[in-house]
Amino acid sequence: MDPNPQEHGPIPINWADDAEDPGHIPILDFSPYSLLKGAVDEDQLQPLATQLVQAFSTVGFVYLRNHGIPAALVSRTFELADKFFALPEEVKTKFSRPADKSHGWVCLERERVTMERPGDLKEAFNVRPPHATEKLWPNEEVPEFQQASLQLYDKCRQLSLRIIELMARGLNIQDKAGLLSMHSMIGTGPNGSLMRTLRYPPVPEQVKEGQIRCGEHTDYGSITLLFQDNVAGLEVQNCDGEYVPAPPIPNTVVVNIGDLMQRWTSDKLKSTSHRVLLPETEEGRKTARRSIAFFAHPNMDAVITCLDGSNKYPPITAGEYLKQRLTATYDVS
Ligand SMILES: O=C(O)CCC(=O)C(=O)O
User: pTM value?
Assistant: First the structure.
């Protein structure tokens, strides 16, 4: 495997031009490349790769079944995150995300993912192993949270790499190993990949004008994995630009393309806008919603150069791109 493929110029790519607009979010069976699968049957991977690229080049989102991340680990992480979020504000503050790091607690309304709206009605606990010091884990208050979070982070890392590998196959990228090696430091080194447990509390009596649970946005990186609890709310823009529900489907993970991957593939794969509105019913407004998102990013020093050699976008390092996007999200004053 070439450790620095980005130094060797664009990776050749042959685009398939026959993708159809499915008009909804496809649900794909990932069992041929499940994390639980011992021996992989290569013949079964190509159809899955084609379906993935078809979905990502149209709606930009898929649901995957049979992905191999244990449901029990996801539920356990949700439960432990609930315990953390239930702690008093002054305790959670001890674990606040430092300004120069991505790991730690992010309080309600701290993030504004769209400039047109006030801060989101959500709180989050970010997990970014290279930025996590022991002091930033609530090990006394919620003893197993760190272990479960790190286990889930690693499963998400493994699944993301399998998805990226299949995308490279589906796109006919010759140097598939090169694309993968640009994600080699997820969780271990200079790489912006982040997992976050999210909690959208019951909607307060007073909300600011235009305030919702998570404003319209696209994700920044390569791909995102999203586990939803059983409370609806996620909406995804369809090919006509309308937001349509992406409801929770048990034992699936939602996967979508991020902006950097769209740029990398010269807009072949779509980074689609999504949001979480406030529930309309009184019952819904009293109910909290939870999700866990894993944002897979390339290594910070990976130079993102259009894979088709088109130079549609100038090369940029993943690190510089992430810095620009994070500054826009957090500098809300
Ligand atoms: O909670 C959700 O369903 C969506 C979260 C999301 O889009 C994000 O955190 O970027």
Answer: 0.91
Domain annotation for the chain: domains and CATH numbers: 27-329 (2.60.120.330)
Q: Which residue has the tokens 């993968």?
A: 180
Closest atom of ligand 1 relative to the 246 alpha carbon: 3
The 8 Å CB, 24+ separation contacts for 239-247 are 239/21, 239/23, 239/58, 239/59, 243/216, 243/273, 243/274, 243/275, 244/24, 246/25, 246/61, 246/274
User: What is the best residue among 198, 254, 290 to mutate for testing ligand 1's pocket, by most ligand atoms within 8 Å of CB?
Assistant: 198
Give the residue-averaged pLDDT of 265-281.
Answer: 96
Could you give the dihedral angle defined by the CA atoms of residues 217, 328, 293 and 269, in that order, rounded to the nearest 10 degrees? Answer: 50
pLDDT score at 331 = 55
Q: Give the binding-site residues of ligand 1, using a 6 Å CB cut-off.
A: 198, 214, 219, 226, 228, 234, 274, 276, 291, 293
Give the single-character DSSP code of 202. Answer: P
Spatial CA neighbour of 290 closest among 202, 229, 246: 229
